[in-house]
Design brief:
Layout lengths: L1 E4 L4 H10 L5 E3 L17 H16 L3 E10 L20 H12 L6 E12 L2 E13 L15 E3 L6 H4 L1 H7 L1 H12 L1
Parallel strand pairs: 1-2, 1-3
Antiparallel strand pairs: 3-4, 4-5, 5-6
Helix pairs in contact: 5-6
Length: 188
């Protein structure tokens, strides 16, 4: 089975390829010569994930899936949420995004948060979505070298290390994306 993962994010592509069981080949947007940036104009993770798979199915005809993920901080009413990648601006700077989160949390005691992923898919004429989430807390210092995005400041529940410290084996077992992807694979 060949599936297109509708993303230009090489970190997400690498994470997903490490989770795929044998017998499923994941193609990137580059593999299908899709160079355009699919504009995410939705106001929810669900809408953005659907926009991407609809675009690939409508314009390229492939069975495909996409994800949209966000960090949702309780004390910030779910922000940055759907705007996680561009929270501090269109340049999508991880450093600036983290600094903005810290600035917004400066006077807050509660740093509870969750990462949430929605996977949307078009497979064999069917359209469906899967969700995965992991609860945790935001810390006020960066720790760890692994992962990407907000991983150095997010400690998942039940752990004392950030996603960036835990390593890809543990992250690929407990993360929001891994949970959503397991639901997705079981739905195939």
């Amino acid at each position: 089975m060949k599936l297109v993962f509708a993303t230009h994010n090489l970190n997400k592509l690498k994470e997903i390829k490490e989770l795929v069981p044998s017998g499923i080949e994941i193609l990137s947007l580059t593999d299908i010569n899709c160079t355009e940036d699919i504009e995410e104009t939705g106001v929810t993770l669900e809408e953005n994930a659907k926009i991407k798979v609809d675009y690939i199915k409508d314009n390229y005809g492939y069975d495909c899936f996409s994800d949209d993920s966000g960090l949702e901080i309780d004390a910030l009413d779910g922000a940055p949420g759907v705007y996680s990648a561009r929270y501090a601006g269109a340049e999508k700077s991880n450093e600036k995004n983290i600094e903005k989160v810290w600035a917004k949390l400066a006077d807050k005691k509660d740093t509870s948060a969750q990462f949430r992923t929605i996977i949307a898919a078009h497979i064999d004429g069917e359209t469906f979505q899967c969700e995965g989430k992991v609860r945790g807390t935001i810390i006020s210092e960066k720790r760890g070298e692994g992962g990407f995005g907000y991983d150095p400041i997010f400690i998942p529940e039940g752990y004392s290390e950030t996603f960036a410290e835990l390593g890809k084996e543990i992250k690929n077992e407990i993360s929001h994306r891994a949970k959503a992807f397991r639901f997705f694979i079981s739905s195939l």
